[in-house]
Amino acid sequence: MFNCMMTKELDLIYQELAYNLALKGKISCYPNPAVGCLIVKEGQIISLGYHKFAGTAHAERDAVEKLQQAYPDTWQEKIAHAHVYVTLEPCAHYGRTPPCANLLADCKVAKVTYLSADTTDKVNGKGVKILREAGVEVEFVPWQQCLNLNKDFFALQAQADLPFIKVKIGASLDSKIALPNGNSKWITSLQAREYVQALRWQSDAILTSAKTLIIDQAKYNVRYEQLPQEVKNYLAVKDLKQPKVVIFDNSFLLTGQEEIFKHHQSQNLIIVSQKEHPLANKIPELNFVVGYNSHQKQDLEKILQILKQEYALANVLVETGSSLTNFFLEQKLFSQLHYFMAPKILGSGVQALATQEKFTQLEQCLTLNLLYQINLNEDNLYLVYEQK
Amino acid sequence: MFNCMMTKELDLIYQELAYNLALKGKISCYPNPAVGCLIVKEGQIISLGYHKFAGTAHAERDAVEKLQQAYPDTWQEKIAHAHVYVTLEPCAHYGRTPPCANLLADCKVAKVTYLSADTTDKVNGKGVKILREAGVEVEFVPWQQCLNLNKDFFALQAQADLPFIKVKIGASLDSKIALPNGNSKWITSLQAREYVQALRWQSDAILTSAKTLIIDQAKYNVRYEQLPQEVKNYLAVKDLKQPKVVIFDNSFLLTGQEEIFKHHQSQNLIIVSQKEHPLANKIPELNFVVGYNSHQKQDLEKILQILKQEYALANVLVETGSSLTNFFLEQKLFSQLHYFMAPKILGSGVQALATQEKFTQLEQCLTLNLLYQINLNEDNLYLVYEQK
Predict the structure, then answer these.
(1) What's the rounded mean pLDDT across residues A304-325?
(2) B262 Cβ neighbours under 8 A, 6+ residues apart
(3) B47-79 pLDDT, tens per residue?
(4) Per the domain annotation, does B104 fall within a domain?
(5) Which residue is closest to A17 within chain B, CA to CA?
(6) Residues of A classed as catalytic
(7) FRET partner for B145 with CA separation of 20 to 30 A, picked from A289, A378, B235, B290?
(8) pLDDT at B1
(9) Apex CA A82: angle with CA A79 and CA A83, to 5°?
């Protein structure tokens, strides 16, 4: 129908639309990968869908169900011979939902274009095989952006010594996290803070320092009502799990009277100190990691290993003050930097990123890759980076 | 064909695609507005286009010509009764190209949806009128994003005392413009620097301080070969105009031997100082603005007025060191902030944004609106803000 040039251009547009759909589900679909799907028939977009929440329809099924709702009688006819664009290889396993590869094969679509490979054991080519055996043409157009969106998913599926570590920062355009007087309420927008609640909800643990926890009187819990609506649409209050909290306290600042002790059960708190902590006698239900100096890279690595191996913390959110945050970055002990940037200029105040080392050459600096970006209300940008 | 829900969703997708097309032309279409156009027939995207360069086809014509090329014999039949999405009201005036409103009417399209109003005298409803009189259905769906993209265009069409002032900053993620030793080559990517060349090319003048000019040995000229390819595709070397350079030099640092004097004709340089400048005798072809203290807001405003009224500088790019840059921001004497952000963490060094005032409340800080964003190579973000 189209000449070749236009076909290629449209192909790119469809791929980009599928990616944009995937991105819409990213904050809520955890721990599943974010996936978007577009169904095109004779040059018309006939349906679209994305994965919204673990246990609900995958992107392909979401798109098919949407078509079913729109055309209860004729959807089968409409989808037959269609071209499906999907950002990840269709799944081949019976999880909480039946496999998407079978669904698409049953729908008799003509062609499936997928944009990133699902290398996890459950899929890894099996989806493609099901489709091909059913006579569906399958095309793989590897698109790094689609992989970048799910690096956390793939990392968490793989074996690793250390937890997957997300460092979270909320800062102004000039990279300040507080005014000179310490005032930081609020630099980022309400929606940005809702996203931080979602990051907590996604995490096995939040990692912080006793100092920050005391200064901020931080609770480090997930407040259901403050979660993004996309999450609340599917998450029942009763299903909300609180993350554990890991507290670095070499100086024995914690007394047991802090806010955190009121909002978490003692067995969900893990206190890390070089020498035995005085609270060990006072609150024996607490967990302690003793013997490591968190100010040294090797010891910090060891602590993180213990958190992964002894406490099964696979996914840790570093949400703390500027010095510990910067230590994680400087030591390159992080998987991703989740940077919320508000369109404000504070002019002076506490710098978000002020590492100890003084570089003389730009090549020495930490360089990052932008994995994905979500534009939030009030022009706050949610930027997710990894080390280059 | 579609039920209502899907139609609405597709409408939004088409609008967004038209916007994305407009954005593609933003860096090269100056001084014209950036416009994107999508043509949809019976649910199929049949063509797309955008305005690339002043004097070349407008977005609507670009899309029509693309269709003509693809279907030399049947394009008229294809476009008849189509639905056109365009980010700005179709033009009604004969400029270097005939009016787009007439073109679309002649093509017998069924409907035109436009996403922002062209309030300039030449159009201002006339495009809509031409279309309606030809029996074309016209729908206005105001979309702030499309207006935001062309704020510079609309501001430059209007009367104003002051020039349109773009402040340019190239910084790291932690908002540093140089390492502690002053090394800043290069924080931003090659493409970001090409975009800065394009900003210079778009400007009537570059404004800087003698100090920065001397330290950086800056030439402040446009280097044709370093312009973005999008610009070079249409701009002939011979048509490249160099911006004037305005130099603030209260301390009489300029000797006439600096690089800048080798790369600009003297009559294109404007030197601003409080007292009469010693170079006035030495190089009489230079321009001088004397009697104002650029460190005071009222005087700075007066200087800018003179630049606009006496030197006809309507569009000024502030591209200078951190203290003058910050003074413009602090005094709110700017129209837009053009912020190039590289995914690097310098950790220490010269802060891009370090205003003098110390705030105690976040409400006192400068808050910005993000107008638009272009993602450049090497994950550099080009963010364009205005004051909220």
Answers:
(1) 97
(2) B219
(3) 999 999 999 999 999 999 999 999 999 999 999
(4) yes
(5) B13
(6) 60
(7) B235
(8) 47
(9) 140
